[in-house]
Amino acid sequence: MIWAMFAEAWHAMGANRLRTFLTMLGMVIGVGAVILMLSIGQGTQQRIQDSINSMGANLFIILSGSNVAGGVRGGSGNVPTLTLQDAQALAELPAIAAVAPVSPGQAQMVYGPNNWNTTVMGTTADFLKVRDWPLKEGDTFSELDLRSATRVAIIGKTVAENLFGDENPVGKTMRIRNSPFLVIGVLASKGQSLDGRDQDDTVLVPVTTAQRKLFGTRFAGTVRYIMVEAKSAELMARAENQMNDLLRQRHRINRPEDDDFTVRNLTALADTAADTARTMSLMLGAIASVSLVVGGIGIMNIMLVSVTERTREIGIRMAIGARRRDVLGQFLLEAVLISLIGCLIGVLFGVGGGLLASHLAGLSVIISAGPIILAFAVAAAIGIFFGFYPARMAANLKPIEALRYQ
Amino acid sequence: MSATDVIRITHLGKDYDTDAGPVTVLRGISFSIHEGEFVAIMGPSGSGKSTLMNILGCLDTPTSGEYVLNGHSVSELDHDQLANLRNRVIGFVFQGFNLLQRATLTENVALPLVYRGVARHERNAKAESLLGKVGLASHVRSYPNKISGGQQQRVAIARSLVGDPRLILADEPTGNLDTHTSQEIMDFFTRLNREDGITVVVVTHEHDIAAYAQRLIRLVDGKIAYDGPAAAGLHEHAEVSS
């Protein structure tokens, strides 16, 4: 019975191939668009997520804020108010996992015939922990390096490539602002940051070395900013309060509006970016779904025409014993078949288009089973939904009127 | 009612609603047809014979009166039960053959069995054997538009027989056929009636077709004008018209 119905539906679809093809085309385009959009959306989301992860998790950055002198408030960062001692005190807080003070500067560096200019960051060994940034080879700074401000450096991949080429930089001596620095480690590659900067184009030195030997400052012992990692996402709010309290106490500030520092929650920013990407992806999918609905309407349209055209056939079938549900099933099956075959072709086009987009346009595309299964479920639902009305119309024909129809 | 009544109608009436108001087509007809009878229904056009045939075939419903088919009171049955009666009790033969053009002869003949849920090979075997019986064994894979009208009507007869019906209803079965082919078809009905004991009811307006039947029912203006042996009825009518 089932096979007979499939055969009937197949016959009926083959009877008017061009029309069946054009009807399917609606579904092909709809499903193809949905799959392509969801794949691109997911790819973009994944790329943003990767960038966020490359920044480090549960991250705060504390910037030195404005100072207040005689009621005149300066802008953010105009006076470095944060010190190494602040960083050490913050590290004692219970909600905090790691703290890395950063004292950055721009410097020219030389190795052999090559030279390069990049950001040199004075920091501590915890920087690697905070940023979740493993070493590719070599070692990080020791306590001794920090205490005695030794001239050692950890370099990023881009710097290693530009200065050392194919040589292994570890153990070599390079010059930063003409002072010799021993390269003790190379960072693993992290790629682009959220704002498109090359994160691998950097050099790390002990913060004390940066302060005393590279970038002398008028404010001895200060750092530009402090990066802080909370112990967990749940502890972010508590960590923020603890840090604010501690720093106000240390800086002898009574009112929060006089704060000479700013605590920024970087993870919140990143979450916003991820949310935006998710929304975009959903919106693209929603727009593409409209074409799926239009495809469904196309199926309904053709099925209505088909029922009218085949009224006499329906009459003959009823006269020799077809029940209403036989006629209903026949037309419903035809609609669902058109829809599902269209969906299958659409999935092929969507996946193909996705691969093409990733190869030719360099878009991040993730093709996963989820949207494909969803597409088939939706296509079947559309076939049933838009096929039901015409099929019921066919089933409710009166046998004698259907037979007389010319 | 007698146990061998295949059809029994009592005071059957049928009105149609038209734009010009209700039109009465059948005015209280009563008769019974026993198992194994060969009945011809005649009458001028507009006499209601096609309407009567459609009601007998459960394709249309009467406005009044009772129709008992094979022991079932038709007015009490729902759509599915009516479909089941059409499928199992009645075999239909139409003037215009009414074959599905897209299906092969075998598929056409086997179609009633599809709705009984009979397996494909079983259906096709039975359909092909019936096509052989009506002399079309070499055409089983052909399509209806490749064969002659007489052949198409034989396919339709094979289709009407595939479900082993007790009753064949033929509505002007020879209306589209030449004299020679018409005789072939009527001979076939006669054999079915005599050899297999199938009840045959033929609607026709041709005397020589009606002459194949044993019993004649003549309708005039929605009423029965004659119900009796075919030979006498045809003779009487010939005298009246001459």
TrEMBL record, chain A:
It is a multi-pass membrane protein. Residues 20-245 form the MacB-like periplasmic core domain. It is found in: Cell membrane. Its main location: membrane. The chain crosses the membrane at residues 21-41, 282-307, 327-351, 363-389. Pfam families: FtsX, MacB_PCD. GO terms for molecular function: transmembrane transporter activity. Residues 286-399 form the ABC3 transporter permease C-terminal domain. Keywords: Cell membrane, Membrane, Transmembrane, Transmembrane helix. One of its GO terms (cellular component) is plasma membrane. Belongs to the ABC-4 integral membrane protein family. This is Putative ABC transport system permease protein. It comes from Formivibrio citricus.
Automatic annotation (TrEMBL), chain B:
GO terms for cellular component: membrane protein complex; plasma membrane. One of its GO terms (molecular function) is transmembrane transporter activity. Residues 7-240 form the ABC transporter domain. InterPro entries: AAA+_ATPase, ABC_transporter-like_ATP-bd, ABC_transporter-like_CS, ABC_transpr_LolD-like, MacB-like_ATP-bd, P-loop_NTPase. SUPFAM superfamilies: P-loop containing nucleoside triphosphate hydrolases. The keyword Electron transport does not apply. CDD domains: ABC_MJ0796_LolCDE_FtsE. One of its GO terms (biological process) is response to antibiotic. Pfam families: ABC_tran. Keywords: Antibiotic resistance, ATP-binding, Cell membrane, Membrane, Nucleotide-binding, Transmembrane, Transmembrane helix, Transport. Coiled coil: none annotated. PANTHER family: ABC TRANSPORTER ABCH.1, IMPORT ATP-BINDING PROTEIN. Belongs to the ABC transporter superfamily. Macrolide exporter (TC 3.A.1.122) family. This is Putative ABC transport system ATP-binding protein. It comes from Formivibrio citricus.
